[in-house]
């Protein structure tokens, strides 16, 4: 891999093998939050039941909200849901709509790594192709390609070998803890070039 980037990575768009835009509704019942922008009539026409919605809520670890509030109680969800719950609600919408492609921009940054992994695997199992903007190396394993931008007009699109990339990241972390030396600085520079990162990442 010969990176085209020369400076700090501004964003990474990671691609697997299969676009839905998630909007936030402020007031309505819990069912409305999951099926948005569909209406209840749309849901019925798609032959989706409330039990199907319960399964989706379990998949995104939000079943406690269904138990607490039911699907029918009208609330202002902006004030009720935490940041991580809002992100998982957006993923619940993704699972309800089952698009062919999904662009996910830091969509699990407030979600624990174990739940995040479960969600990504579920999306892949549903046949959704994920285009992910992330800075979390834990998501690399769910993708086959990486598109890197450096913020100065340089970019690179290549296959993603998450094992070797994680090894480079680990080597860099260990080097950052090591005693300063010319050899350390040289190797860090090489690693930064390979990872398209700067010294602070």
From TrEMBL:
InterPro entries: ABC_transporter-like_ATP-bd, ABC_transporter_sub-D, P-loop_NTPase
Coiled coil: 165-192
Domain ABC transporter per the UniProt entry, residue ranges: 8-109
An annotated GO BP: long-chain fatty acid import into peroxisome
Superkingdom per UniProt: Eukaryota
Keyword annotations: Coiled coil, Membrane, Transmembrane, Transmembrane helix, Transport
Record's GO cellular component terms: peroxisomal membrane
Classification via Pfam families: ABC_tran
Gene Ontology molecular function: ATP binding; ATP hydrolysis activity; ATPase-coupled transmembrane transporter activity; long-chain fatty acid transmembrane transporter activity
Family, similarity comment: Belongs to the ABC transporter superfamily. ABCD family. Peroxisomal fatty acyl CoA transporter (TC 3.A.1.203) subfamily.
Name listed for the protein in its UniProt record: ABC transporter domain-containing protein
UniProt source species: Acanthoscelides obtectus
């Amino acid at each position: 891999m010969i990176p085209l980037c020369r400076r700090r990575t501004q964003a990474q768009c990671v691609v697997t093998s299969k676009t839905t835009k998630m909007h936030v509704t402020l007031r309505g019942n819990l069912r409305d939050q999951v099926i948005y922008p569909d209406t209840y009539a749309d849901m019925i026409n798609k032959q989706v039941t409330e039990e199907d919605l319960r399964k989706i809520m379990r998949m995104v670890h939000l079943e406690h909200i269904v138990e607490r509030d039911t699907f029918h109680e009208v609330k202002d969800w902006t004030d009720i849901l935490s940041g991580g719950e809002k992100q998982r609600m957006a993923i619940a919408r993704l699972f309800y709509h089952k698009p062919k492609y999904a662009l996910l921009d830091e969509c699990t940054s407030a979600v624990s790594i174990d739940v995040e992994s479960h969600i990504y695997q579920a999306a892949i199992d549903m046949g959704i192709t994920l285009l992910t903007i992330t800075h979390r190396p834990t998501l690399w394993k769910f993708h086959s390609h990486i598109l890197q931008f450096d913020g100065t007009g340089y970019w690179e699109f290549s296959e993603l070998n998450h094992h070797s990339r994680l090894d480079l990241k680990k080597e860099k972390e260990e080097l950052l803890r090591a005693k300063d030396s010319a050899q350390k600085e040289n190797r860090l520079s090489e690693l930064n070039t390979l990872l398209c990162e700067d010294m602070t990442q």
